[in-house]
Each structure stands twice: as C-alpha cells, then as structure tokens.
User: Fold these one by one.
Assistant:
Number 1:
Amino acid sequence: MKEMIFNLRNDLKEKLPPQRYEHSLSVSFICTALAMRYHADLEKSELAGLLHDCAKHYGDGNIIKKCEKQKIPLSLDELKAPVVLHAKYGAWLAEHKYGIKDTEVINAIRWHTTGRPNMSLLEKIVFTADYIEPRRDKATDLPVVRSVAFIDLDECIYFILKGTLEYLERKGYFVDSMSVQAYEYYKKIHEVKKGEL
C-alpha cells in the first residue's frame, strides 16, 4: 500500500494543478491525523484523502460528459449542482483507473462533498479533512471546527454541514438533497448530545 500511495502522489502531481495537488496532499495528511485520533486504518485514510479530488480538474461540464460516457447514473440534484459530481466520478476513477478495490475507500471519495446520513468512520474522516485542512481559509468558523474535529467527529460534521448549507442558501446556490439529509441526521445526534430531545 505504501508503494501504491507513493506512485499515486507522482501520478497526481503530473495531472492536477499545483494548488489542487497541494490540497490533496494536505487532506491526506489530515486524514492520517484524524485516523490516529479515532483509531481508523492509517493507510486507507491516507489513500482516500489523496484521491478524494482526483476528478476535480476536469470541470463540471466535462465531468457530466464523462459520467454519461461511463454510464454513471446522475440524479437531478447532481445535474443542478454539478460541483458535487467530481466526488462521484472520482470514486469511479479510483476504482477503474487507479485499481482501488476497497469499498470503504471508494465510498469515502464518493461522499466527501455532500456527506450522507450515517457515514462510515473513513467517510467522516475524509469529509472532515477536506474542510479543515490547513490551506482552507474562507469559512469563518474554521478555528472552532478544527478543534472540534479532534474531540467529536459527529459534532464536527454537524457544524460543517450547518455552515455549508447556510452559506449555499445565503448565496442562492442549489443545495443537493443528500447534504440536507446528512445535515438532518447529524443535527439529531447533536440535539441528543445537547439534551434537546
């Protein structure tokens, strides 16, 4: 696995724009840090973090065409918010181009943009690492979210989803229904922990 990760780094360095490559490296390192904290598989976490944006450089229009060519089904939500599609196509690339057969890793790549209810530990780690990696600087709540990430992963995901949905609604962007479902799921966990139910 270590040799595979090393080879993938070289491959991605050639294919991705420099900023996207640096982001991918940074996410993979945060994934391993979170994996250490939550006793997840370090190599799977690093691998999923490294490949999470392997399709991002294609652009929304191209990704739709590529998904159609590979007969990857697209929902109406995904067509209305194509920015999330790099995760779906990236999961396909991970399996068919990079030879990743581990379903956990593929799913972590697949759900890193929208999240989903009841994510696996690895899915939570990649979803969170993508948001909190050191080169991110736009979200106003980042310092709090970064500290919560290493205390309570479910609570962190609730804060990420809440902030993301508020931002999308404020900007008037379409919100993928899977993100709403994920938010409702983690909001219930948050409310139970806070004794609000």
Number 2:
Amino acid sequence: MSNEALDLNDPATDPSDVAAAAAAVIAERSGADHHDVALVLGSGWGQTGDLIGETVTTIDNADVPGFAKAAVAGHSGTMRSVRIGDTDRRALVYGTRTHYYEGRGVRAVVHAVRTAAAAGCRTIVLTNGCGSINPAWAPGTPVLIRDHLNLTAASPIEGATFVDLTDLYSSRLRELARTVDPDLDEGVYAQFRGPQYETPAEVQMAKIIGADLVGMSTTLEAIAARQAGLELLGISLVTNPAAGTSDQALSHDEVLDAGKAAAERCGRLLAAVVQKIAVSEA
C-alpha cells in the first residue's frame, strides 16, 4: 500500500488504520511478526542502532505508509529492525522523526509512535538533542526526562478522550537506566514549536515555570505513547546552552558537532539500557 493511499491529514482517515498498515509493511520486510522496543533517535543518538545488536532489515521511510524521508540534517531517513543483543527480541529503530515545525500535522508527528504500538512494542525510548538551562549540564551530557512542558499549544489526542499523564516518563525505566549509569541526572523538558531557536526571554519563561531543558520535539510523541499504552523512557542529549544562558550564538551546526562528539558514549549508554529493558520484559 502506498503512502498516498492513506492520507494522515484526511479527516476521514483513522490514524490507527495508517499505523496498522505501516506495521504490516514492517512485519513483512523484517520477517518479524512483532517488535518489542521502539527507539526514536534524535540528534546525537544515531550510533545506538549499530550498538544494540544485528540489524536484520533496513527500510526506507518512504516505503512505509504515513512516513516520509528525513527533513533535518543529521537524521537518517530509514528505520531498522534490530535483534537486541543475543536475544530473540527485536527493536524497531527510527533514524528520524517528523517535527511539528515541518507543517505536516500532529498526526504525522506521532505516527512513528502509533506504528510502534501497532507493531507490538510495549516500550518506547524517545531521545532528542536539546538546549540546557542548567549550567551544570555541559554539551555532551545525557539527561533523563522526568516530566515535560508541552508549549506547542497542540495535542495528538482527538476528541473527548482524557488521558492521565501522571508518571508519563516511567520511573521504573529511569531507575533501570541508572543501573547502567548511576550518574544520570534528570530534569523537565519543554517543547517549543520551532524551527527558530528560543529567545532568551522564552528560555527564562520556561525556567520560571519549571523547565531544565528546551527543544523542539518529544512531548507530542510522549502523549501519544501514553494514549497507546506504551511505557516510555525519555533521554535528552545536551547539545548547547539554551539561549541567554551563555554568550554563544546558537546554530544547527553546533548541535550536530556536539552530537558527533557524544555519539559513542550516548550510543553505548542507550544500547545497554535497551538490552536491560528487553531482559526486564522477557
């Protein structure tokens, strides 16, 4: 089934139907009737897929209903089915995400999450590159997401469906991550709409209302994950100081450079965490 056959932005289309169609393509291409853990790899996290285990199948996003090629430099326009370590469990690894600022609609932003649930995943790991308000977290620091502030004025939930977001970012998974790296800190992530970086005043606003980290992704996907019944782990990689917290100008090249510098550490950390998740759910 082609992407054009199921239009996520058509009000007559049920997004769960598109997710089911995407999951069917993934199952056919990968030879796996289900996957166990999904990962969305943001800036700086790209090596993780190589370190989790053997890549069984690589699929172009454009071949899967509802997906599109990568729109951001530093992201991969493919998804992979990866055998987790020496187990028989599979990870569905997305090399990119759809950002809200791309203008494709909220359904497209959360389609990978809904597809993961349709593919059988019980757990999802959302990663991102972000700016840090906390001066103790230098570029290259991984930080567990404890909670979030959704400043996009949007939601993936449609209609009168009320979803509890208490413990949205699983405390169980955060503790499991600390068995891999006891020094992992945690904080609150605020998502702005983007694509412009936040102003210093916006960063100060976010700080006043409780944010430690700022970025342009993750919160809408997290809400969709809870709605779909997935257990969620969120991890941010600090790629730059947030605007106004240093005298540095912000640039996407800086984000990419910081991600490359931290790639091996973050990749090994996340691969070990995913292997622990797989064992804990066996």
